[in-house]
Amino acid sequence: MAEQLPVILVTGGAQGIGKGIAASFLDKGWRVVVVDQDADAIQACRQGFGNPDNLLMIETDVSRESEVVAAVAAAVEWGERLDAVVNNAGLADPDTGPVETLELAQWQRRIDVNLTGAFLMAKHTVPHLRKTGGSIVNMASTRALQSEPDSEAYAASKGGLLALTHALAVSLGPDVRANSISPGWIDVRAWQANAPSEPAPLSASDHQQHPSGRVGTPGDVAAMVAYLVSPEARFVTGQNFVIDGGMTRKMIYED
């Protein structure tokens, strides 16, 4: 019997950081399941990847449990196993205006997608991850650790992901490991569904805000995901890894 290839499921994987992660694991020879709500982004992503045999794309709203159940069932039927889940799906715009005028529906939608979606995906993939000694990676944000004005819903959802991560690690260990990544400024313009052929270069001052000397790329995040789901990280669980080029460690004074 031929050896089964490892399978990774990436939510929000049709563009942005998620697409970068999917591309990285396709290159590594994994079978990749991309779950995304945006049908147009799925189509563009499929065309961009050339529709390889080791890629499955499923249109899914991760905040709806019935759709998560169906997506997980389809992924496991196709891949015959599940080794890693990356909960990357989220509403990216943190600015929802002053808290005094923040509508409950806006608040709830960010919690539903960014946080509840990760819970639902964990809930329904854990039985399969137990069989493979698999791993969960939740995509949080540096905004779980520090804030800008008018970002209450986004910050709360990402902060909740950090707590969900260590709770999962304790509840699921030693069978399944759970960690989170908090990206900082990641330039995803070339990884969007409507990406320009050549995005305008970022300024020198943009890069200089980072002690590492540059703005991040989806590949930087994908490299950490690759480590966290690998056997080399088998002693790592319940942790949050900040991938921000040192930006959140740099003191910035207003003139």
Automatic annotation (TrEMBL):
Q: Which InterPro entries match?
A: NAD(P)-bd_dom_sf, Sc_DH/Rdtase_CS, SDR_fam
Keywords from UniProt, A to Z, are: Oxidoreductase
PROSITE patterns to which the protein is assigned, alphabetical = ADH_SHORT
Which portions of the sequence form the region Disordered? 196-217
Superkingdom field: Bacteria
Tell me which family the UniProt entry assigns to this protein.
Belongs to the short-chain dehydrogenases/reductases (SDR) family.
Provide the protein name: Oxidoreductase
Question: What organism does the UniProt record list as the source?
Answer: Marinobacter zhanjiangensis
